[in-house]
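This is your field. Have a critical look at the following sequence-structure pair:

***
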Amino acid sequence: MPNYRPPARMSGAPTKVELGAGTLLYRVHAAHRVPDAFNPVPAHCLYGGGRFDSTACDRYGYLYAGLGAATAVCEALLRGIPFDSAGGPRLLPRVAVAGRNLSTLRLATDVTLVSLTTAEDLAAVHQDSWLVQTEAHEYPYTRDWAHWIRRHTAPWAQGLLWPSKREPGDRTVVLFEDRCPPNVLEAADTDPVDFGTPDGEAWLNSVLQPYRVQLPPAGHRP
């Protein structure tokens, strides 16, 4: 599928889904960044970057979040963490959580997204599960598809919604800053979870435990 270029026109009708004002979103982010700030930095067209980031070909601020706290943690932290062949817990390197928080955000307004959650939804944008399940080495292609979807759903599509790759029972969103009203997000009535504190570490380990993942003991060397 990555070698299949987007067609010249969209013949299907993308599935619209609305997240209502008051919906909670969860985001793992660098502690020094404002929790509701969109990322203004476009990814390289070919290297690095996320699944649906902007690039020089289509510039927009973007913000990824999970509809559940565990989903946000899984999406941000569990990429490439292999299972232990002896059956022990997987160890999440402490460097992966250094200087990071989990914040709870609330939608201040309704937003309309393109749903990519079912095979029918994906077929409507000429795609299949590859678009939302492929690994990072093919993200240059998924970014190109995101730009194509944006182009054919202007001006109404304010983001995308799809099943989390690392927590398939929940969903992930990306919001497009240029399609959302100012202050579309607000802080919820909960303090950020600082992974660098004892309480934050305990919270994170409790979330990771069902996925057979934990932080290594302090001072642990692989």
Remarks:
- Helices lie at 69-77, 119-124, 130-133, 139-152, 198-208.
- Residues 139-152 form the longest helix (14 residues).
- The chain has five helices and eleven strands.
- The two ends are 38 Å apart (CA to CA).
